[in-house]
Write a structure and sequence with these properties.
It is built from five helices and four strands. By secondary structure, the chain is an alpha+beta fold. It has a four-stranded antiparallel sheet. A hairpin with a 7-residue loop joins β2 and β3. The longest helix is centred in the N-terminal third of the chain and has 14 residues. The chain is elongated and about 50 Å long. The model has no long low-confidence stretch (mean pLDDT 97). Bound molecules: zinc ion (ZN).
Length: 93
């Protein structure tokens, strides 16, 4: 079963490092590039992407090698209104 993961990879705040990060993602995976959003234009030098993977290791491997060690890789999920209602009922909130 595939899970959703959010990948969060930052880089130093100078235009050469922005170019390097973008080039590494583009060279490594056009699929990842198509999923990625970058905050460079507003001086937040972070790339975010939500991807599908079977486990934490596979999710991390979807990043270029230079980004794997420092990136946050977090399994995430969405909740439906019904699930939230069930959770609220369980916790009586
Ligand atoms: Zn940047």
């Amino acid at each position: 079963m595939a899970y959703s993961y959010i990948l969060v990879a930052s880089h130093d705040s100078n235009s050469k490092e922005c170019a390097r990060a973008l080039a590494e993602v583009a060279a490594y995976s056009l699929h990842l590039l198509s999923r990625a959003h970058f905050g460079c234009d507003v001086d937040v030098h972070v790339g975010w992407a939500i991807i599908e993977a079977d486990n934490d290791t596979q999710a991390r491997l979807s990043l270029p090698p230079s980004m794997r060690e420092k990136a946050q890789v977090v399994r995430v999920k969405r909740y439906s209104p019904d699930e939230i209602a069930h959770i609220r009922s369980f916790h009586k909130i």
